[in-house]
Amino acid sequence: MARRTDEKILTEVGTNEWQVVVFLLGSQYFAINVDKTREILRWPGVRDVPQTHPAMIGITTIRGEVIPLIDLRAYLDITPSVERDGSKLIVAEFNKMKLGFVVDAVDRIYRINSDELDASLTGTFLGENALYVIKREERNILLLDYERIVQVVNPGLSDQFKVEGKISPSLTSGLGDLDEYKILVAEDSPLIRKLIQDVLVSGGFHNFEVVGHGKAAWDRLVEDGDEFDILLTDIEMPKMDGLTLTRRVKEDERLSRIPVIVFSSVMAEDIKRKAQSIGADAQITKPEMQNLLGKVIELLGKTPKAARRLAS
Length: 312
Fold this sequence. Notes:
Layout: E1 2-3, H1 4-7, E2 17-25, E3 28-33, E4 37-42, E5 56-62, E6 65-71, H2 72-76, E7 88-94, E8 97-103, E9 105-113, E10 117-118, E11 130-136, E12 139-144, H3 146-153, E13 183-186, H4 190-202, E14 208-211, H5 214-222, E15 230-233, H6 242-251, E16 260-264, H7 269-277, E17 282-285, H8 289-300, H9 304-311
Helix pairs in contact: 5-6
């Protein structure tokens, strides 16, 4: 077996570079962010679980911990190139859960730049499961939307992404008119974008703008005539990742006052330290929607706009 940490390539914080594990399903290459992976194992065996999605092939036990197994070949309707006993298992951890993705083979780790993520075919020819194409060494490598895949396989997980009922108006009473606060959201996943919009509306916020990557967020922040009161950003995005976006905001004399919440499916301790080191005001793990909304209210309450209202 190989532990992911043995092979991880280190990158500096906020350089727009990260790493992906490249693997095979049939003859097609796919990728998953190194920060989502914990280890790569030989086939560990599986125990069936009845009445589940066809791609949810069962559970296994790894060092005393029971984890579900999702066969990505079954999910994507790809004919395996190896027998199940010859498969590899990528143990992943994100959204505060651990699970195993069953694949044909694991190729290598690539260091990539966010500029290499091509989203031009997303939602059309690539369908809803693939977010980006990475072109490397004459290969077209697909980066999948793993959060969406897991929710399709286990629909009950979607409940974790919801805020129960409307929040109490008393929690936002100190802010005054909530539509006076302008919120910018940078998130590449269509699924998570919709969930964030829903949670902001449930909190009484309607003056927000949502963009699909860090470069679009940066362009909006530096435009003349627009001022945002808070920034919510994912980490893993094309064109400019969330850590690079955060670093640029905090290094800019005009923008550094804007609170930044890093909201990511991966919040391991090293990622939290990276976010903190570049000035992020908060780091919250998906799917903590209730905590996200609470932190938005808290940080907006510390802005000059809120202070002026209280002083008047």
